[in-house]
UniProtKB/TrEMBL annotation:
This is Pyridinium-3,5-bisthiocarboxylic acid mononucleotide nickel insertion protein. Keywords: Lyase, Nickel. It comes from Paenisporosarcina antarctica. NCBIfam families: nickel pincer cofactor biosynthesis protein LarC. Belongs to the LarC family. It comes from the Bacteria. Its EC number is 4.99.1.12. GO terms for molecular function: lyase activity; nickel cation binding. GO terms for biological process: protein maturation. Involved in the biosynthesis of a nickel-pincer cofactor ((SCS)Ni(II) pincer complex). Binds Ni(2+), and functions in nickel delivery to pyridinium-3,5-bisthiocarboxylic acid mononucleotide (P2TMN), to form the mature cofactor. Is thus probably required for the activation of nickel-pincer cofactor-dependent enzymes. Gene3D superfamilies: mk0293 like domain (3.10.20.300), Transcriptional regulatory protein pf0864 domain like (3.30.70.1380).
Length: 435
């Protein structure tokens, strides 16, 4: 399994992460090909080499060819020397520069042109043909950003608007990073403590404190670094990668490094403004993990409400939820609710049962379980690309199962029975994954 360490000594932003991962070896063509299938503005995505206080690093060069209705497509040669620059010109608002150096004409609340709601972006990702894990990771990152922006601006997260220019940027940065992780086959991510920077930054809303409120909101619970530099070191997108994708916070793992990549930020400081990413190859060992089981049984709760509890528990991170019919005191038919969860989600799920069901108590037990290490792989089939889950024991592949959602989608698309697609995928997987 590949492990990625994010060394955020100069903070983290969307473009720093994408360029660092490309420097580490992520295939830029693979990233471009997948991004081009999305319904977004035409863009060019390139990487240039820059010197950051003596460190030769990769820097993102992302341009959009404007599709605002009042504007025409502009040729690729436009603004060649300006790097991560949007050739948008709006007929309203003021121009501001984000820390990673691109200029937007941006005046929240007075827009005549299109915007993208968080829910529209999430829907676009859901409906996309992105590889399974890249899709899940991208959704997780956008949900974190939308939650934080929603909280700051006092809005429903689904209704949060990404300014059209910012939306395009974010889509490329977020989905690009998740595709880069896929290209490198990263299974686990560890991040160092994160410095935020201090001072003020001029954004569309006005002169804001650093860390920007959305960044600060996202970084709740994340260990911060004791490194104080004037300027914005960590942006909301960078913080969202840390919050949504990282499995563990800590120091560099005590393992042999395989490869190192450097992604440059746009600003210059007295220190090298780079994100360093390190790739490790971790030996697979049979894994043991702790899980918590929460239980209560009810004889006075409706079927509808029961279904709602199952849905909400799964949304709140339950690994599994199941109902067992039981006979309770006074011969009453009832239902035993069982929730399996990782220890970190125990409190939230306990609260769900106590607050939203008729129970007056919840039983809790800790279990240890042995699990197979698993990887997701994309298989080429006559029904298109389908993701399979590969289970391994002591490095040996012992089972391969197609992902239900992908099989379902293909079954509808080709109007064939679910089981037919399933069998074809299993057969193709056995040929394409060495077993
Ligand atoms: O435009 C909006 S809504 C906005 C809100 C906030 C808040 O903290 S609230 C912050 N920012 C700033 O935008 C840039 C770009 O960040 P990305 O993560 O999209 O690269 C950054 O300087 C933020 O602090 C914008
Ligand atoms: Ni605008």
């Amino acid at each position: 399994m590949k492990l990625l360490f994010l060394d955020c000594q100069s903070g983290i932003s969307g473009d720093m992460t994408l360029s660092a991962l490309i420097d580490l070896g992520a295939d830029i063509n693979y990233i471009r090909e997948h991004l081009r299938k999305l319904p977004i503005d035409p863009f060019s995505l390139n990487i240039k080499i820059v010197d950051k206080k003596g460190i030769s690093s990769k820097q993102l060069d992302l341009r959009f060819y404007v599709t605002d209705s009042e504007e025409q497509l502009k040729p690729p040669s436009h603004a060649l020397e300006r790097g991560h620059t949007h050739e948008h010109s709006h007929d309203h608002g003021h121009t501001h520069t984000h820390n990673h150096g691109h200029e937007h004409s941006h005046d929240i609340g007075h827009h005549s042109h299109s915007h993208r709601k968080a829910s529209t972006i999430l829907q676009m990702i859901e409906n996309s043909e992105l590889p399974f894990r890249a899709k899940e990771r991208s959704l997780a990152v956008f949900r974190v950003i939308a939650e934080a922006e929603g909280k700051i601006h006092g809005m429903d997260p689904e209704e949060v608007h990404f300014h059209e220019v910012g939306a395009m940027d974010s889509i490329i940065d977020v989905i690009g990073v998740c595709l880069a992780l896929e290209s490198l086959d990263i299974g686990r991510i560890v991040a160092s403590p994160v410095p935020t920077g201090y001072g003020k930054i001029m954004i569309a809303h006005g002169l804001y404190p650093i860390p920007a409120p959305a960044t600060a909101e996202i970084l709740i619970g994340v260990p911060l670094a004791d490194f104080h530099v004037k300027g914005e070191l960590t942006t909301p997108t960078g913080a969202a990668f840390i919050k949504a994708l990282v499995d563990e916070y800590g120091n560099m793992p005590p393992l042999a490094m395989e490869k190192i990549g450097y992604g440059a930020g746009k600003k210059d400081f007295e220190h090298p403004n780079v994100l360093r990413v390190v790739l490790f190859n971790v030996e697979e060992t049979p894994q043991q993990e702790q899980i918590t089981i929460l239980e209560c049984q009810l004889d006075d709760f409706t079927g509808e409400a029961m279904g709602f509890i199952m849905e909400k528990a799964l949304n709140q991170g339950a690994l599994d939820v199941y109902f067992t019919p039981v006979t309770m005191k006074k011969s009453r038919p009832g239902t035993l609710i069982t929730i399996l969860t990782k220890p970190e989600n125990t409190f939230v799920l306990e609260e769900l049962l106590l607050r939203e069901t008729s129970t007056f108590g919840v039983r809790k037990s800790e279990w240890s379980r042995r699990i197979l290490s698993r990887e997701f792989k994309e298989i080429q089939t006559v029904y298109g690309k389908i993701t399979v889950k590969v289970g391994m024991l002591e490095g040996e592949i012992i089972k391969i199962y197609p992902e239900y959602e992908d099989v379902k989608k293909a079954a509808y698309q080709y109007d064939v029975p679910f089981v037919d697609v399933y069998l074809v995928v299993q057969q193709a997987a056995r040929e394409q994954v060495i077993i």
